[in-house]
Amino acid sequence: MFPRKSHWLSLLIAFCYLSQLSAAEKSKLPYPKLVVGIHVDQLESDYLHWFMDAFCEDGFKKLLHEGKVYPQVAYQLARKDDASTVASIVCACPPRYHGIISENYYDRRQNNLVSIMSDANYLGNYTTERYSPKSIKTSTLADELKLATNHKAKVYSLGLDAEACVISGGQYADGVYWRDNQSGLWCSSTYYPSMPRWIENVNDFRLRNKDFDKMVWQPKYPIGKYTHMPHQKPSLIFHYSLANIPLMADKVNQYKRSPMANEELCRMAIELIGIERMGQDDVPDLL
Predict the structure, then answer these.
(1) Is the backbone of residue 105 left (phi > 0), alpha (psi -120 to 50) or beta?
(2) Is 252 inside a domain boundary?
(3) What is the model's pLDDT at position 11?
(4) How far apart are CA 133 and CA 284, in angstroms?
(5) H-helix or E-strand containing 286?
(6) Cys-Cys crosslink for 203: which of 94, 185, 234, 252, Cβ 3.0 to 4.6 Å?
(7) How many domains does the chain have?
């Protein structure tokens, strides 16, 4: 049973079993070549139990059955959102130390809400948004890995939203990429070294094919298989077509809430690992 704790579940696939070994045993083990951190916003632990029958064997089932599971973990934050929670995870400390108290804050000079990661000193690549990780007041897991390896480790952050991606990448990331809220394109910041050509090619393909209009969100299996879902009349079966949404920003917002976004994120992560040759040498890398 997975007790309901937080709206945020973070799975860090990072050889967690090492904590159970003695110092002598640890010294005999090689460093992991690639560490992958996965943060799923709004994934309540109850869902893992409810939808267990629908999961494939090499996904959540593998993590839950073969990995270390800590169902009692909870973050005592006054305000929980994506930014403050991710920062607390990767910095291993509460907001009063890392400084990320919320995703947005009120700027009196602009008389408006602005992103906690906003930084006018840098420009956006494929976005008008301007971000950097300079608001983080402590080191992150990624920063410590960079420092421990004399910056030889490769560190990349990839996701749907800017704040979580920028925070996860830390101060020294080789690249951080997220989906722009207005266009849906993959974007970044000039804070980072460069915008890879392969990501530009993905954006060019999307612009040519207008693939958002071809996307439909509907159940993968017959509706009767979802035993924990409310009863639905045939005329109201869950079905969303992005083509029916007139404004692009609204299309992107709905897309980010759909499984299609996670599927593409997974494909991009696999491609990034291959292109950047992550995990191919003796220095551990982090994604």
Answers:
(1) beta
(2) yes
(3) 42
(4) 22
(5) strand 285-286
(6) 185
(7) 1
